[in-house]
Every structure is written in structure tokens, then in C-alpha cells.
Specification:
Length: about 450
């Protein structure tokens, strides 16, 4: 690359690793959305907090925008660099820094993959309970930047609940150490929670102290076949009343179709419209209660069939039916909606949304799945092979506007856990008031006065 700024950056931050190969620019300049053509200036791979600070100071002085980059597994365009930005990848900053047995915390660099952080916690007889299918490739920094949820939110909550402290390099290169692992701290605003879910617009998360907890009990997994969409919340209520659920996930027959085509094993001889994967403690009392809940639902006509895992291997097979969905859909580059409503609003919202999508997308394969136990739905619309991408996206955007109106009416969110990024930016006002958005802009202006931190994401 001949851009003189690259040589200037290298001279300003001696020892900084930079990548400018076209294949690297494409790889690091996009996330899983694949909707924008990557066009970053270069890829910076700092190895320390000090290098991150130096890169940010250089970027501010030279009016170069920065796109922080973790595992780039996002689905909202939050890690896209399409306008000459400098991508700052934290992949080299991927180490465990320390473990505190008394505080039960694990301090890690932000580029560490979620799976490695989980394994490090297990080495100390504890667990970091946030979990999802992309655990091997997503990074802790990216999880924090989007307040990622995953499959066990119904039991453990979102990422936000498990961050004891973090370090953030803001727009002028200063380092903020916020939270500091204090259980109680009423000394003013908690800037840690501003950084969480900020999507890299306030700064670069470089380090995090994670809360750990006791390892989960041995669990059983049950797969339920449901005859109708209306039964979902009733089945959830029946199982929640009897069990401390670890997870409660649902998927449609179309989702199962794609996972089976991708190599998973069919769970039943017959096909059913909807399925639930639920996990709970495997002690004798819990198994008895689970079977009682199953029988109750069968008698009420809410469940058509079911299977309970008899081994870890079978549990893994059942979980694959849910966790393998995203990978099985990857070749279609689906248009995704990630929405949430309160549990009390879920029945009405489900009915309205099913009708809306049925009317709006008769020509498309629509794949539903999600974390029904915490009110989060993932809606994937698959592009026909013979349809032009721009026409497909325009048609989907039209329906997303209608979906945003339904969410607003039910007090829901257009983004439950994937962030706003570029994809959902036009619909932010369905979730946030104009006053809130103005305050968010003001906060960004304070922490990023030059406007270099992931500009254009979340809002303009």
C-alpha cells in the first residue's frame, strides 16, 4: 500500500504490527453480515495497552477513524470498515492476566476468545457462565461491546452481569480503569456500564475482569416437539414452575431442516412445526419434575413428542440442533433480525409477528429460533439464489420497518444482543427516544471528542 499515513503510523508506533495485504484488508474489514465491501486503510495489531494508546493518539492527530475488532462474529455491521478506517484488532492481546481466588475473578486481555476464558475459569474449579455457539471465535472484548447474551441468559443473565471491571482506551488515548472489581461502589457514575454495549463507539476495551461462579450442576437436556407457536410460552411456564432452568431455546421446522442438511441427526421419526431445547439439573428430583412437566404439557396438547438425554454425547447431539443453526445458514448470507420483548408481551408479539412475516415474506425461507426464555427472537430471512442482493435487502428492510413498529408498540428492542451497528441504525428510534439518543450523542462527544471511534455505527 502506498498511502503515506501507513508509513507515518509505523514510524509513530515502532514495533506495531500492521497488515495491508488485500486479503487481510478484506478479512479484517468485515463481520458476518457480508453486506458491505471492506475498504480499511490498514490493520493494526497492537500487543499491549500502550500500543493501543499510541495508535489512538496517532489516529486522533491524523483524523483517521478507528474500527475496533474482536472476533468479528457480529451480525449488525458493527465491525465493518468500509470507508478507509484503521482496523485495530485485539487478536494478539489474548492472554489471561490473573486469577483472584478470594474475589473469584479472572482478568483477561480483551482479545481472548470466549472459549479460552471459559477453560481458564474451569482450571480453577469455577465457571464463566456466558455462553453461545460462537464461543471458539468471538472475543471477550466483542462480547462486552455488544453485551452478548447467548443460550443461558435465562439462568445467568447477559455479559453485563459478569463484568467486574474493565479498561477502556478512549478517543484521546487516555486509559480508563472502571469498576475495579468492587462489589459496592456508590461514588458517582459507573462508567463501566457505559462501555458495555457501546459497540466500540466510546473507546477500545483492552482488558476485562470477569466474575466467576460455581460450576454448573450435572444437567440433562430435553428436546420437545410442539404442535403450534401458541404453545411456546405455555410450555415455558410449565417447565419454569417446576425447574431451575439452565436454558430454554426454541427453533422452527425450517431451522431443523437446515441443521439436518448440515449433518445433524434427526431426533424424531416425524417432523413437527416447532421445537424446544431445554436444560436443567440432572438430579433425581429435577428429572422427576421435568417428566411431570412433560406429561402435563402432553395432556394439555402443548407437546407432541419429546426425548431426554441419556448421556453427554446425546445431550451434545440435542444441543447441536440449536447451536448449529447459524453455521448451517451461513452460505445464504441471511438477513437477520435480533429482537426482544418482555416475557409478558411475548404471546401477543409472537402472534402478531408470525402473521406479519407470513404475509410479508411468502416467497422467502424464513428461519426462526431464539432464547424464548428471555424474550429474544432471531429471525433469519434466506435470499433465493436467483435474487439480486440489493433487491433482497431492500425488501427485507421494508419489513423490518414494520417489525420495528410492532416492537415499539410492545416496548421491545430492535437489537437484543447483536448490537445496532450499521444494520439496525435506521430503527434505533423504535427502541430509544429522541431524548435518549441525544444524550447518547453527548456522551460520545465527551469520551470521543474527535469522533474517531467506530463512527457511523449506532448513530451518525
Amino acid at each position: 500500500m502506498t498511502d503515506s499515513r501507513i508509513a507515518d503510523l509505523q514510524a509513530s508506533v515502532p514495533g506495531l504490527r500492521l497488515k495491508t495485504d488485500p486479503a487481510d484488508l478484506e478479512h479484517y474489514g468485515r463481520d458476518w453480515t457480508r453486506r458491505w465491501t471492506p475498504a480499511p486503510l490498514a490493520i493494526a495489531l497492537p500487543g499491549s495497552i500502550e500500543e493501543v494508546q499510541s495508535v489512538v493518539r496517532w489516529a486522533k492527530a491524523n483524523a483517521v477513524a478507528i474500527v475496533p475488532s474482536g472476533g468479528r462474529t457480529g451480525l449488525s455491521g458493527g465491525a465493518v470498515a468500509a470507508n478507509g478506517e484503521l482496523v485495530v484488532s485485539l487478536e494478539r492481546m489474548n492472554q489471561v492476566i490473573g486469577f483472584d481466588a478470594i474475589d473469584r475473578t479472572l482478568t483477561v486481555q480483551a482479545g481472548i476468545p470466549l472459549q479460552l476464558a471459559q477453560e481458564a475459569a474451569r482450571e480453577h474449579g469455577l465457571q464463566y457462565p456466558v455462553d453461545f455457539a460462537a464461543r471458539g471465535s468471538c472475543s471477550i472484548g466483542g462480547n462486552i461491546a455488544t453485551n452478548a447474551g447467548g443460550t443461558r441468559v435465562v439462568r445467568y443473565g447477559n455479559t453485563r452481569e459478569w463484568i467486574a471491571g474493565l479498561k477502556l482506551v478512549i478517543g484521546d488515548g487516555e486509559l480508563l480503569d472502571v469498576g475495579r472489581s468492587l462489589v459496592k461502589n456508590s461514588s458517582g457514575y459507573d462508567l463501566r456500564h457505559l462501555a458495555i454495549a457501546s459497540e466500540g463507539t466510546l473507546g477500545i476495551i483492552v482488558e476485562a475482569t470477569l466474575k466467576l461462579t460455581d460450576p454448573p450442576p450435572p444437567t440433562n437436556v430435553m428436546l420437545l416437539a410442539l404442535p403450534s407457536f401458541d404453545a411456546l410460552m405455555q410450555v415455558f411456564d410449565a417447565f419454569r414452575a417446576r425447574l431451575q432452568l439452565q436454558a430454554f431455546e426454541f427453533l422452527t421446522d425450517r431451522a431443523l431442516h437446515h441443521v439436518l442438511a448440515h449433518g445433524a441427526q434427526a431426533p424424531f421419526a416425524e417432523t413437527h412445526p416447532f421445537y424446544v431445547v431445554t436444560e436443567f439439573a440432572s438430579d433425581e428430583a429435577s428429572e422427576t419434575e421435568a417428566l411431570a412437566a412433560f406429561e402435563q404439557c402432553m395432556e394439555a396438547g402443548l407437546v407432541s413428542d419429546g426425548v431426554i438425554s441419556q448421556s453427554d454425547a446425546q445431550a451434545a447431539q440435542l444441543w447441536r440442533l440449536r447451536e448449529g443453526i447459524t453455521e448451517s445458514l451461513a452460505r445464504y448470507v441471511p438477513y437477520k433480525n435480533d429482537v426482544s420483548v418482555r416475557l409478558s408481551a411475548m404471546p401477543a408479539f409472537l402472534a402478531e409477528t408470525q402473521a406479519l412475516l407470513g404475509d410479508a415474506y411468502p416467497q422467502f425461507d424464513v428461519v426462526w429460533f431464539g432464547h424464548i426464555g428471555d424474550g429474544n427472537l432471531h429471525i433469519n430471512v434466506l435470499k433465493p439464489d436467483d435474487m439480486v442482493q440489493a433487491e433482497f435487502v431492500a425488501d427485507c428492510d421494508r419489513v423490518t420497518r414494520l417489525l420495528a413498529e410492532r416492537l415499539h408498540a410492545h416496548g421491545g428492542s430492535i437489537s437484543a444482543e447483536h448490537g445496532i451497528g450499521l444494520v439496525k441504525k435506521p430503527y434505533l428510534s423504535s427502541t430509544r427516544s429522541e431524548v435518549e439518543i441525544a444524550l447518547m450523542r453527548g456522551i460520545k462527544a465527551v469520551l470521543d471528542p474527535a469522533g474517531i471511534m467506530n463512527p457511523g455505527k449506532l448513530f451518525d
